Amino acid sequence: MKTKLLLLLLSVTTLVNAQVNFFEDFDSASPDLTGWVYTGFLVNNTEPCSGTKSLVKDFVATGSTGRVTTRNYVSNGNQIIFKHKYKMKKTATGNNPQANHRVDISVNDGPLINVYNANGGFSQFCGNQAQVVIPASAVPAGSNVKISVEYAQYDNNYKLTLDDFWATQALNYAAPSITNVSAVPTALSSKIVYTLNANNANTTSIIKYGLTSSALTSQITGFTATGDADVSGDVTISGLLANTQYFYRVEATNSEGSTVGTIQDFTTSNPVSTEYNFNGTYNNTAGSNPFNSGTFVDDRNSVAASAMSTTGSSATIPSNLLPSGSSDRTISIWYKTSTNANYPEIFSYGKNVNSQTFGLYLSSKGSPVFYAHANDHDFGGIYPASTWRHAAITYDGVLVKMYINGALVGSKAYTLNTVLATNSFRFGQLSSSTHAYDDLKIYNYVLTDAEIANLYSNNTTLATAENVGKDAIASIYPNPVREVLNIKSSINIKEVQVFNSLGQKVLQGKGMQINTSKLKTGVYLIRITNLKNEVTTSKFIKN
Fold first, then answer.
1. Highest mean pLDDT among 8-17, 208-217, 420-429
2. Is the Cβ–Cβ distance between 333 and 308 less than 8 Å?
């Protein structure tokens, strides 16, 4: 006795695609028939119509009856086609037996409603009983329906075998639905979460997005859905600008039509948790969380008082600015050691417990050593002292990667749990010698190889050149600029974007001039897009 959900091909022109509500062949054991009632019939392996078992009853008295009633099944509101197989075998001499056959339904456990009633003649072999059509008006959508079959003896004795009960109901088709839409943005990407219901027609989806609600000019492919159940999933939009508002909309399509979701928005976060440039101040670029001591010295470009020299110093940094536990991170720092003796420490933070510290110190050869406390790793190489170098360390929850001067020098698997015992970031804690530091950046995500190379070359994660096609080249002047930056291009300009050294967009406009008067002094990147969607990126200095 086995209740099955499957698709059957029926010779009924009105049911091209049908949903089988149930199929019962009585071959398997309980509990497949839980809720079914078969009064007067026994499950037997005597001459089944198919499989190994069927329902059997001996009719030996005029007027005796037997009834089989299904359990409740939920209607989708369409008509139901019901069939079963039967076989009548004479058990006494005389004319072929006759039986009265009726089909009733019960809606939401209400009284029986007769939908079929007829006398049936002798059938020595199993065959399909004339199908019974239960009209849609009898079974509203969402209602429970039971189907009841009764046989009554009309004359003469016989043994009745019933087998293979099944019912089909046409599918409901509709355009897809979209619900539960939300965004989970990070610094340079956003996960779009939503739920689709295909409403029985194979459904595809896309996400359109852009910088304004009226211009969703970019799109990515979403996930697909089938059937009539809710399907939840997510799609990640990558390559976004940091600290920028985006608008997006989910759209879904099937053979019945398209559904367009409402326009929503999200704002990407600041990719840098905190940054210190040490241009004459212990504070970070937000003007807070200062280091407790140090001497200002020339930086790597020989600019006076633009780096910090210390024999050990720390800054109290709030826990939300220091990536902890096993979270993604990148630490970028320029350093110069006076000596490589006694394992000079560059930086560290966390707790002095195995794998609960995150830091960098040097071997006697100047090679970078990842500091995890009692679980350190030397990435090798020879790096003389008294030379400015750039180091970057990333962690993605699995691998620690070490970069020197923009190039990857190695990786090592770690299971870290950085604990913020004192919420402080330390320079040279283990060092007795004096070292210099510059441009400390702490990111809450993992930079790519290209972004780290750009940090080394340009002190920003953005590339300094992005020229596409000979007509894309545009020039800017004056550079350095105090107020108005002019753009010269043979093709009209579609959009201009200006980014600071953190990769944050600080200006946006159109046309051939950009007013930079409100920008702080420093180095910026300008990204120019012409009407052919060709792009030029250049660096300029704001005085």
1. 208-217
2. no
Domain 177-267 class, CATH top level = mainly beta
pLDDT given at position 10: 29
The predicted pLDDT at position 155 comes to 81
What number of other Cβ atoms are within 10 A of residue 150's Cβ? 20
Closest by CA position to 281, among listed 230, 315, 317, 257:
315
pLDDT one-digit tens code per residue, 90-112: 888 777 888 888 999 999 999 99
What is the Cβ-side half-sphere exposure of residue 509, based on CA atoms within 13 angstroms?
14
Cβ-contact 359, 350 below 8 angstroms: yes
For tokens 């009853």, the residue is 57
Report how far residue 47's alpha carbon sits from residue 186's, in angstroms, rounded to the nearest whole number. 67
- Rounded CA-CA distance 403/338 in Å is 21
Q: What is the pLDDT of residue 252?
A: 98
- The structural domains of the chain, with segments of one domain joined by +, span 18-170, 177-267, 274-458, 470-542
Q: What is the CATH number of domain 274-458?
A: 2.60.120.200
Give the whole-angstrom CA distance, residue 48 versus residue 298: 97
User: Which has the closest alpha carbon to 271: 450, 466, 447?
Assistant: 447
